[in-house]
């Protein structure tokens, strides 16, 4: 299969639900576009994919992913340029990451053409659902899960790959306050921290619920051995501006998701001449930088939130209040630079944008 030759059958809806989208009030993940892509994997191969009207699934209660969590997903966004043409940001990078997750979770690799051309065609068909105003986009959710009707524990043999899309506004409406987690753990070396496995998100619900009750927005996860080194923040990668350097945890131990936004941020900053260090970051180093006035900015990065500024970090009894976001150089520059590329206002010198 090549991108141009993959055969995706299309059955269009006769009743668009586009009226459900209120362009003036787009919330994340509330409304789904008219169509979805569905592909089955059986007998060791992918069957012909289809784009069909968005609809409920009918699955046996014995379907294996419901019980054992052999399920992964991705998140990508499409934007509209000034001429109303949709642009998808770095879908091939998400495809590569999906297959890294798939391998670890004993799921079959998804062919590039199925993933990338599937997204392109789905966005093309539902292009009216890509909103136009600043800070809005069409969130694209590919996902892959095991569908054997079998509750014995073994790697499954039948799978479904799907893509759904949903118009999205800003993920966070204001800078977030963060609680440094030193009880619960997100990931250990050798585990699945580097994957977008459903279980990584499922396990975060209880600790996140707890810190929300305490008045915080998100968790800064730390390593499970000493609770000393920072990993990720909520569902995002994390960056700190220390003096004139930018630091972010490295990916070596496999406990951190290799974010596509993370990579874009590192690339853009390095091109600009900013020093970016990918390395272990101890929470004590951040606390000391804060006391010395060197902790200038802190922000999360991810597809859903893009750049999410942090207003405060609480570690034990100490709350580190960051300066007002309006004064930040790095995050504000990145936000604009990324938006300019994504909305097609700036030349795509990295080959990041897929034109629909
Ligand atoms: C993303 O940024 O795409 C995420 O993974 C967040 C998502 C779970 C809503």
Per CATH, the class of the largest domain reads Alpha Beta
CATH topology-level fold name of the largest domain: D-amino Acid Aminotransferase, Chain A, domain 2
Structural class of the helix and strand makeup?
alpha+beta
| Helix residue percentage | 10-25%
User: CATH superfamily name of the largest domain?
Assistant: D-amino Acid Aminotransferase, subunit A, domain 2
Bin the strand percentage.
Answer: 25-35%
Which regions are unreliable across 5 or more consecutive residues at pLDDT < 50? none
Largest beta-sheet characterization? 10 strands, mixed
Mean pLDDT, nearest integer? Answer: 96
Overall 3D shape: globular
Number of domains: 2
First-residue to last-residue Cα separation = 19 Å
Ligand identities: 2-OXO-4-methylpentanoic acid
Give me the strand/helix succession.
EEEEHEEEHHEEEHHEEEEHEHEEEHE
Q: Return the CATH architecture of the largest domain.
A: Alpha-Beta Barrel
The number of E-state strands comes to 19
Q: How many H/I helical runs?
A: 8
Structure explained in plain terms:
This protein is of the alpha+beta class. It has eight helices and 19 strands. The longest helix is centred in the N-terminal third of the chain and has 14 residues, at 91-104. It is globular. The two termini are 19 Å apart. The model has no long low-confidence stretch (mean pLDDT 96). The structure holds 2-OXO-4-methylpentanoic acid (COI). 2-OXO-4-methylpentanoic acid (COI) binds next to loops.
């Amino acid at each position: 299969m090549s991108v141009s030759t993959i055969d995706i059958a299309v059955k269009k809806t006769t009743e668009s639900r586009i009226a459900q989208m209120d362009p003036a009030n787009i919330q994340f993940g509330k409304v789904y576009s008219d169509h979805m892509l569905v592909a089955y994997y059986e007998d060791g191969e992918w069957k012909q994919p289809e784009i069909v009207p968005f609809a409920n699934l009918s699955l046996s209660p014995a379907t294996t992913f419901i019980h054992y969590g052999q399920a992964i997903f991705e998140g990508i966004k499409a934007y509209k340029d000034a001429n109303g043409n949709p642009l998808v940001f770095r879908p091939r990078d998400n495809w590569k990451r999906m297959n890294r997750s798939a391998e670890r979770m004993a799921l079959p690799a998804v062919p590039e053409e199925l993933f990338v051309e599937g997204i392109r065609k789905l966005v093309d068909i539902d292009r009216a659902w890509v909103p136009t105003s600043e800070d809005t986009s069409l969130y694209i959710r590919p996902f892959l899960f095991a569908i054997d009707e079998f509750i014995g524990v073994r790697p499954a043999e039948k799978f479904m790959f799907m893509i759904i899309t949903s118009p999205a506004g800003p993920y966070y409406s204001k800078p977030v306050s963060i609680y440094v987690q030193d009880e619960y753990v997100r990931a250990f070396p050798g585990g699945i921290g580097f994957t977008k496995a459903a279980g990584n998100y499922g396990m975060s619900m209880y600790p996140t619920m707890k810190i929300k009750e305490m008045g915080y927005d998100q968790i800064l996860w730390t390593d499970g051995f000493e609770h000393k080194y920072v990993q990720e923040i909520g569902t995002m990668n994390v960056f700190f501006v220390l003096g004139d350097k930018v630091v972010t945890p490295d990916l070596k131990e496999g406990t951190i998701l290799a974010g596509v936004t993370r990579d874009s941020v590192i690339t853009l900053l390095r091109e600009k001449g900013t020093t970016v260090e990918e390395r272990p970051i101890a929470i004590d180093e951040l606390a000391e930088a804060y006391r010395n006035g060197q902790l200038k900015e802190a922000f999360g990065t991810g597809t859903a939130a893009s750049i999410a500024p942090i207003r405060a970090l609480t570690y034990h009894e100490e709350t580190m209040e960051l300066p007002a976001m309006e004064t930040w150089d790095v995050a504000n520059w990145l936000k604009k630079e990324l938006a300019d590329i994504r909305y097609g206002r700036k030349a795509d010198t990295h080959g990041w944008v897929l034109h629909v």
